[in-house]
Amino acid sequence: MPVPPEPVTTESVADPVTTESVADEPAAAAPRATRRSRLARLTGLTYLRTRHPRTSRALSWCATALAAVLVLGALLLPNTLPGVEPRSFTRIPAEAVLGAVVVLGLPRRPRLVAAVLYGLGLTALTAVNLLDMGFNEYLGRGFNAALDWDLLPDAQAYVEDTLGSGVATAAAVGAVVLVLLLAVVMVLATVRLSELLVRHRPRAARGALIAGIVWITCSALGLTLFGGPIASERAAGALRVHAQRTVESLRDEAAFAQEAKADSFGNTPPDQLLPDLRGKDMIFTFIESYGRSAIEDPIMAPGVDRTLDTSTKALAKAGFAARSGWLTSATYGGSSWLGHSTTMSGLWIDNQRRYRTVSAGDHLTLTKAFQKSGAWDTVGVMPGVQKGWPEEKWYGLDKLYDAYDLGYKGPKFSWSTMPDQYALEAFQRQVHGRKRDKPLMSFVILTSSHQPWAPIPKTVGWDELGDGSVFDAIQKAGNKASDIITDTTRSREEYGKAIQYSVTSLTQWLERYGTDDTVLVFLGDHQPIARVSGERASRDVPVSVVAKDPKVLDKVADWNWTEGLKPDRDAPVWKMSSFRDRFLKAFGSTPHPSG
C-alpha cells in the first residue's frame, strides 16, 4: 500500500513575520499564538499554508517587502514632480532608524499604538508632499496648511467648470478614498514591520545600531550618492518646514491687519484725488494669466509678440499711443483675485487670509478713489463672477455686471463663461456707449485666456456678435480640455493663442470705440501655471497705459516705460503693490495718511 504523505503542519512552514520567539515575550506568547491561529482559520491562511507552503511563504515575504517599500518611500518622497526619480530613494532615512529603536524598546501595547501613529504620520506626510507637488506644479509654491484649505473648493469648482461635474465629483470622492486607503495600508505596513522587528529582536537591534552608525558617519562626513546626501532627514525636514510656514502665516495675519489700517491716501479729500484725470473715461482691465512668459518664452512669444506689434501699429493709426512696463505679481498660476486686489489696494496680498482681511476693511482701492472723488460713475464688468460678490463695495463699484447681466446666449469656453470679444461688446452696448452726466471708471476682468486654454474662441466680425450664438460652431470645433491639460507643449501653444485672442479683442475694441478721452490701463494678473511658464519663471506680468491725449502719457514719462504694448526685457520692474500709489501721485493726488 502506498504510504500516505506526512501532513504538513503550520509550524513546518512558519511565516517569517507571524512566527514569534517565545523567548522574546514568553508571558504573552501563548495568547497571541491562539489569536493568530483563530485569525488564520477565519481568513483561510491555514489552508494556504498547509496546501501551498511555498506560495504562502512567497506571499509573506512579498507583503513584508511591500511594507518596507511603502514606509521608506513615504519617508524619502520628494515634494516636487521633477524630484521623483530613482536616486531620490537611495538614502538612509533617520526617521526609519529612530522608528526601529523606539519599537524595539516598547512593550506590546504601546508598541502597537506607536506603530499605528507612525503609519498615520506617514499618511499625513505623503498627503502633504502630494499637495506640495500639485501646488508647485500649478502655483509655483508649496502647500500652506494654514492658508490653502480654502483653495480646495475653488479647485473643485475649476475642475467642474472645465471637465464637468461628474469628473469633479469623481475626483473629490477619489481623493478622499485614496487618502483613507493610504492610511489603512500605511498603518498595516508599520504594524507588520514593528512585529517583524520584535520577533527578530537581536538581529533587528544590531541592524538598527549599524544603520545608526552609518547614518551618523555619512552625515558627519557629508557623504553623497547620486548628487544627494546619503544621510537623509527628509521627512522631519518637510514637517519642520510646514510647521514653520504655518506659524509664520498665523503671525503674518496679525501683522498684516495692522499694516492694512495705515494708508497714505486714506484721508485724502475727494477734490484732491486724481485731479489730472478729470473728464477722462478710465478703464482698468486685467487679462487672465497674461504673464512675462507669453512675451519671452520661445514657444509662445513669436505669436504673442506679433500680436502686440500689430496691435501697437493699429492703435497708433487710430491715434492712440502706449507705454509698457512690468509688475511683479503677488500670485502665480492662479488665484487671480490676489493680483487684482494687490494692484488696486497698494498692499501685498499673496494669500487668502490677507485678501479676506483687507476686503473686509475700508482700505482705499484705486477704483474706489475714483468713486470717492465724486467725479466718476464706477462699474465692474466681470464675466467670471457667477455668484454673489460682496467685494464690489470694497472696490467702490456703483454697479457690477456679472456673467448673468451681459446677455450672453452662446456656449461656455471651458472655464470662461463667454468670449472676451462678446464681453467687451456687451460692455460697450450696456455701459460704455451710453450717455451719462459723468465720465466712467470701469474695472474689467477678461477670462478667455484662463487655463486649460481649450477650446479657445476666435475673433468674429464685431457686427456679427449678436447674443453670442455665433460662437456655437467655434466652440464645437475647438480642442477638448482633456486633450490639452495633460500635454505641456500643447498647453503652451494654446496658451499663447489664448493671449493673442484676448489682446486682439481688447485692442480692437479700443480702436472701434475709444475716444479722445479714453484712458486704458491693462495688465496680467499672474503668470500661467508653472508647467507652462517654465521652471524658475519670474512672477512678472506686462502692464500698459494707452491713451490718445498726450498729456496723459506725459504724466507717466518719468516711469521710463517702453513705447508700445510690448515692454522691453530691461524695462522697469515694480512690485504690483506699488502701482496704486504711483498712479495716484502721477495724476495729481495728494497724500493724506490714515491709521
Description:
With 595 residues, this protein is of the alpha/beta class. 52% of the residues lie in helices and 10% in strands. Strand 7 (377-381), helix 15 (391-394) and strand 8 (399-401) form a beta-alpha-beta unit. The longest helix is centred in the first third of the chain and has 35 residues, at 165-199. The radius of gyration is 31 Å and the shape is elongated. It starts with 25 loop residues before the first helix and ends in a 9-residue tail after the last helix. 41% of the residues are buried.
Termini Cα gap: 105 Å
**Which ranges are low-confidence, i.e. pLDDT below 50, for 5 or more consecutive residues?**
1-30, 39-45
Total beta-strand segments? 13
State the CATH class of the largest domain. Alpha Beta
Mean pLDDT: 85
Question: How many structural units, i.e. domains?
Answer: 2
Sheet of most strands:
9 strands, mixed
- Fraction of residues in helix: 40-55%
Radius of gyration, Cα only, in angstroms? Answer: 31 Å
- CATH architecture group name of the largest domain: 3-Layer(aba) Sandwich
Total helical segments: 22
Shape: elongated
Class inferred from helices and paired strands: alpha/beta
- Write out the CATH superfamily name of the largest domain: Alkaline Phosphatase, subunit A
The oligomeric state of the chains shown is single chain
Strand content: 5-15%
CATH topology of the largest domain: Alkaline Phosphatase, subunit A
